Amino acid sequence: MAATMPAGPMLSVVIPTLGRAILVQTLESLARCTDMAQLEIIVAGNIPDPAVAAAVASLQAAHPQIQHLPISFAKGDSSEKKNAGWRAARAGLVAFLDDDVIVQPDWPQRMLEPFREARVGLVSGPSLVPEALPRMARLAGLTLASKAAGYVAARYTAGHPDNFDAKWSNLIGCNMAFRKDVLAALGGFDVAFWPGEEMLAAFRATQAGHTLVFVPRAALQHFPRATFAGFLRQMYGYGATRIRLIRAGVENEWTTLVPAAWVASLVVLGLAALVTKWALWLLGLNLAFYLLAAFAIMLIKLRETKRVGDALLFFLIPCMHLAYGWAEWVEYFRPNADLSVGKKETTCKP
Question: Are residues 53 and 186 in the same domain?
Answer without folding.
Answer: yes
